[in-house]
């Protein structure tokens, strides 16, 4: 009986810890700064300073875009008109982001998305970790 109780507790913990892709979806919108990238062989590239931030905007129809922005010291951003179109889909208990530009298409799977961190893996098994970006305004 004790073994069955332990098995039930472990099973409940496993299912309660399972991530909900819908929850991840609500955290995607906003400004993200890359922290690191990890290759399939485990080599980690740390980004101590990045001159660009990614701005992600996904609407209720699960469509949106990602733009590269250059933050300024006044708290504003410089950008071009270029954007990567995004379609978000929940598939097999995962949140997948499908990107499209005039030149390419690709997919990323969201591993973690919360208020502070975004972690995605692409088809080449490259893992990217982002942190929420906070603008700097030196004029205030």
Automatic annotation (TrEMBL):
This is Lipocalin-like domain-containing protein. It holds the Pfam family Lipocalin_4. InterPro entries: Lipocalin-like. Residues 28-119 form the Lipocalin-like domain.
